[in-house]
Amino acid sequence: MLEKGKIGSRQLMILVITYTIGDSILVVPSIVASEAEQDGWVSGIFSLAIAPLLVVFLYDALRKCYPDLTLVEYSQKILGKSLGIVISLLYISYFFITSATYMREIGDFMTTHIMPDTPIQVIMLLFMSIVLMSARLGLEPLARSAEILFPFVVLLLLILMIFLLPEIQFKNLLPILEGGLKPVIRGSIPFFVIAFIEPVAVLMILPFVSQKDRIRKSLFVGQLLAGSILIIITTLAILILGADLTARQIYPSYILAKKINIADFFTRVEAMLAIIWFITIFIRFSLFFYAAVLGLAQTLKLQDYRHLVFPFGMILIVFTMIMAPNTVYYNTFISDIWPFYASTFGFLLPLLLLTIAKVKRK
Question: Do residues 282 and 146 lie in contact, with contact meaning Cβ atoms separated by under 8 Å?
């Protein structure tokens, strides 16, 4: 086994919470509000009512078929060597492309809101160096980092939510269900995909959880808590900014944090949201990048995945600039194509693998 580290069920739950929040805390409110408008919070509740049950039970059932193997390894067991390698390579490409989208988000966010005069390539290179360090150290240090940083995420989220309460305007939620259920369902799809289905890379780390009997509970509780946080942030964005402004902003939750003003003294604290986002997207980005290099090493039967980390990172930076040459192109790609692409790898293929595995066993 290429990865020697082990993580506990509590660490898995914290990883699930942090990677689910990930980039979702910045981009989900805008995408959901553009579809469901003032009913975006209803879309979030609708997604949360379905996603943890559907996704967790699917992933857990698939994991139980081959508890000591990763997604890449049991794909070859289920489908045979030739077709299994093809599916493994497709998953590795998915992890790689998803990592590129996170890299682009980091660059766009920093050059748009925090460091506009800094070249985007420099920002990408600096953040990539941290992810490379994380990938080389392995899964166990990543889980411990998430465990250490998690209390700060919770504290900053509580401060943000409490201090935004005076800015709430309940009229922004009215009228409820004005367009019926159709916009609500359309809005729930990106919420469901980006937050819960996209992080299928978790199937690459489940074999390394020491307490196998608690995996389902950790996944379920983690998704439930993270989904609740995303619903609260989406609702606050609509309550304070309004559905129209939330939909028009690329990062509405960051704009939301700028609204905090306590007696003209406690102001300009949007850096709190940026810190939350940096921590959570670091965990999500590192997980996907780690899954990509580990999966490729397992597919190629290498003795150590760490030899792939540095070249993979350098290729990723170049690929990111080619994949999304500008912000408009990237945002169009994410809103129009990404939900279907991520659903294929996060739901349809795991469901197909589970079905074939069950049929073969019978």
Answer: no
